[in-house]
Design brief:
This protein has 289 residues and is of the alpha/beta class. Helices cover 21% and strands 25% of the residues. The strands form 2 sheets. The protein has an 8-stranded mixed β-sheet. It has a 5-stranded mixed β-sheet with strand order 9-10-11-12-13. The longest helix is centred in the last third of the chain and has 18 residues, at 248-265. The protein starts with a helix and ends in an 11-residue tail after the last helix. It binds zinc ion.
Length: 289
C-alpha cells in the first residue's frame, strides 16, 4: 500500500508538471468515436480562513483558496456536463457569499452559462448530467440543465430528493427542477456511453452517494475527476479526511479505490478543489482531447 501511494504521488506530480502522460495508450481506435473533447470550466473560487476543517489538526487557522471546476465532455453520442459549480447568481455579489457559519466564502468570477455560451453551447444542449455529490458548490447551477439525463447514486438520490436533504447539508433550491428529469439511479460503477470511455465510479464517504469520473482522452490519456473524494494534494498524499465527511471509513476506502484505478489505468488524478493543480490546467475555450 505504501508503495502504491508513493507511486501515485509521483504520478500526480509528474502529470501536473507535464500534461503529456507518456504511459497512456489510445483507447478508441476510430476517429470520431468516444470522447472528442474535455473543456475545463471555472465554476467558482472559494476562500476559507481555516483549512483545518478539511485537514483535521493540520494547518489550523491557515487560509486557503479552493478552485471549483466543472467539466464539459463532448462525446460522439452526446454532451456531458460533470459538476455544476457555485451558483451563477453569486457573480453579482462583489464580496461573494459566505456560508457554513463563516467557514467558506464563495466567489464566481465568470458565470457557467457565459462560459458555455462562448463555446456555442446552451443549457438545453446538455444531454448527460452528473455531479460528484449534491453540496451547493457542485450543484449551484443544476437547475439550468433540465433536459439532460441525470446520473446519480441511489444513496445520493434518496438524500437529495428525500425529506432530510437540508439535514445533510443539501439545498434543494439549487436542483429541485431536476426532480422530473430523466434519471439513471445507480448502485455502483457505471459506463455512461457503453464504450468504456466515460465511467462513473462510486466513491462514497464525503457524502453517502459520492461518485468520481474517469474520462479516457485520446491524446491526454485517462483523467480521473476526484469530486470531493479528496480536496487537495496534501490530503491525498496523507489520506486526510475532513471531519464533516459523511463517513470516515468509506472516505478512506474510496481513496484506496481511486488509487487502484489510477494504477490500473495509468490515469492522472484531477482534484477539483486543488487550486495549485487547477491553475496548471488549461481552461475553456481551450480543451483537452
Ligand atoms: Zn462537498
Amino acid at each position: 500500500m505504501a508503495r502504491n501511494r508513493h507511486q501515485t504521488a509521483i504520478r500526480f506530480c509528474a502529470a501536473v508538471l507535464s500534461m503529456a502522460w507518456l504511459g497512456a495508450a489510445p483507447v478508441q481506435a476510430d476517429d470520431g468515436q468516444g470522447v472528442q473533447r474535455l473543456y475545463l470550466l471555472n465554476c467558482g473560487e472559494n476562500d476559507t480562513k481555516d483549512v483545518s476543517a478539511w485537514s483535521p489538526g493540520v494547518d489550523v487557522g491557515q487560509p486557503r483558496t479552493f478552485s471549483d471546476s466543472c467539466y464539459l465532455i463532448r462525446h460522439a453520442k452526446g454532451l456531458l456536463l460533470w459538476e455544476a459549480g457555485v451558483s451563477d447568481a453569486i457573480a453579482a455579489m462583489p464580496d461573494g457569499l459566505t456560508v457554513g457559519n463563516g467557514m467558506l466564502t464563495l466567489h464566481v468570477r465568470k458565470t457557467l452559462r457565459s462560459q458555455l455560451q462562448e463555446l456555442g453551447v446552451s443549457p438545453a444542449d446538455i444531454t448527460h448530467l452528473g455531479f460528484s455529490h449534491f453540496h451547493g458548490d457542485h450543484v449551484g447551477n443544476a437547475n439550468l440543465f433540465t433536459s439532460a439525463k441525470l446520473y446519480i447514486q441511489k444513496a445520493e438520490y434518496d438524500t437529495a430528493f428525500g425529506p432530510d436533504a437540508a439535514k445533510s447539508g443539501f439545498n434543494p433550491a439549487f436542483y429541485n427542477r431536476l426532480r422530473d428529469s430523466p434519471v439513471e439511479v445507480l448502485e455502483g460503477d457505471h459506463d455512461i456511453f457503453g464504450d468504456g470511455s466515460v465511467i462513473i465510479y462510486s466513491t462514497p464517504g464525503h457524502t453517502a452517494g459520492h461518485q468520481s469520473l474517469l474520462v479516457r482522452l485520446r491524446k491526454t490519456g485517462p483523467v480521473l475527476l476526484s469530486g470531493d473524494a479528496v480536496h487537495f494534494r496534501e490530503n491525498w498524499e496523507n489520506r486526510r479526511v475532513p471531519a464533516r465527511n459523511f463517513s470516515q471509513e468509506q472516505s478512506l476506502a474510496s481513496m484506496d479505490k481511486l488509487a487502484a484505478i489510477l494504477e490500473r489505468e495509468h490515469a492522472t488524478l484531477w482534484i477539483n478543489h486543488d487550486k495549485p493543480q487547477t491553475d496548471t490546467l488549461r481552461h475553456a475555450p481551450e480543451y483537452f482531447e
